[in-house]
């Protein structure tokens, strides 16, 4: 018996973990005052999926907070870092079924340019629902290499005509 929390997917503020652990300590103490002895703290999820320095910052804050608020080794501490482990475990390949070129100007030189809108066979209402619900940032890259191709301002869209079905808002891609 104990406390479980989840700071929310895509939590951008590592200090939220410290506050949640501090609040958990208050709940443990309140339960003890009522005669209950909690022995489990579940740190939940919300950890980033990208393997970058932010996970190290989060781990440091969590470890510090656990030392401050839960120094008793009899409290069993678990976490649910699912996204951290599986985010890079797969690559989703999609087909580009339509391309729309939109005349525009280069933002730096103001020279005429083209923004390419690539429409793929999957979108935010399918495999890319993490864009809508978990605030994930998808990286689109061609399976085939285009080593000598100029990169163009591009966006990637799902198969519907819904304006929300945008998988990648802005990226640089070769003309496909």
From TrEMBL:
GO biological process, any: putrescine biosynthetic process from arginine, via ornithine
Domain (Orn/DAP/Arg decarboxylase 2 C-terminal) ranges: 88-176
Cross-referenced Pfam families: Orn_Arg_deC_N, Orn_DAP_Arg_deC
Signal peptide: none
Keyword Glycosyltransferase (UniProt): no
GO MF terms held by the record: ornithine decarboxylase activity
Keyword annotations: Lyase, Pyridoxal phosphate
UniProt keyword Protein transport present: no
Name this protein carries in UniProt: Ornithine decarboxylase
Native organism: Lygus hesperus (Western plant bug)
Lineage: Eukaryota, Metazoa, Ecdysozoa, Arthropoda, Hexapoda
Encoding gene per record: Odc1
